Amino acid sequence: MVLLVLVILTTVSIxxxxxxxxxxxxxxxxxxxxxxxxxxxxxxxxxMAYAAIRRIIFIVYPAILSDGMFNxxxxxxxxxxxxxxxxxxxxxxxxxxxxxxxxxxGCTLGAAVAFIAYLLNQRYGSGxxxxxxxxxxxxMVIGLWMVNVVxxxxxxxxxxxxxxxxxxxxxxxxxYLVHHPLTLxxxxxxxxxxxxxxxGFLCGLIFVMGIALILYEIHLxxxxxxxxxxxxxxxxxxxxxxxx
Length: 244
Hints:
It is built from 9 helices and no strands. The chain is mainly alpha-helical. The protein folds into 2 domains: 2-158, no CATH class; 163-230, no CATH class. Helix 1 packs across helix 3 (68-92), helix 2 runs antiparallel to helix 3 and helix 7 crosses helix 8. 11% of the residues are buried. One of its GO terms (molecular function) is acyltransferase activity, transferring groups other than amino-acyl groups.
């Protein structure tokens, strides 16, 4: 189902992005000149539009909102298309990309406030009232702000000269590949024996990361596994005889 949504998002985004490119050739807009404040306003309005669409559907035909296929194909596509378009524009416009790789205090504070608002809405909101519509608006803007928070932090860490950071960057793909089965194993066989959520989370983190790093070190020492995960055959260094 997730793959289907990604296919739909990619297809729709390609069409919209092509339209943007044609419009740019005629009117010459500059996406790089858009500030984060203006982007926040745009995404706030997009969140309001999404909430209005959901409310109209809720009034006209509420039963369809309980259909998982409709929610995945239609509603999630509508919600995530703006992020796909923004990512595509940032990919081809370095100045726009710099908006998200440069730390913004406003985005950090805004994300914190929006997260608190999200928790309050989840706790005190009512599904029969405006809880889901409010959640849509909050999620839309916090998604934009968290892109800046996460990307700027990641950009700083990845460009930080540290052997530890380099080690985890090199190990990240391997950890990503093995953490799924490790998480499933921990959840199926160990989690039922832990009553505390906090202790379970900490134990799971140590279990998954610890074993993933051990497996990473083992795979580095086995040429076949290193080839399978890195995609590069081991380089054989030929010794050169010195002519004396």
